[in-house]
Amino acid sequence: MKRLVLLALQFTVVVAAVAGGFAANDLYGKGIAYADTQWFRQDLDGYARIGLAAGGLFVLVVICYHLTRKGLDDRPDPFDTDKL
Q1: pTM of the full predicted structure?
Q2: CA 9-17-31 angle, 5° bins
Q3: pLDDT bucket at 29, cuts 50 / 70 / 90
Q4: What are the pLDDT digits (tens) for 49-68?
Q5: Residues 50, 52, 58, CA angle at the centre, nearest 5°?
Q6: DSSP letters spanning 3-36
């Protein structure tokens, strides 16, 4: 359960960081007045989708890492003479 909560937290942080970074870069280039326009809201929707895709990819990599690590840790040691 602890790993699932941590995975959900990591996903949320990655989505917020990517979408927030794109939005901040957009506002930096076009000015803060751009935040009140309809076009910014449309752009923000696209940034959220990009953030969701990046978050999903990040979580997939983390899950694969944990599964690979668990598989390597559970494997018997071939050099252990007691288990031959």
Answers
A1: 0.77
A2: 150
A3: very high
A4: 999 999 999 999 999 998 88
A5: 105
A6: HHHHHHHHHHHHHHHHHHHHHHHHHHHH-GGGGG
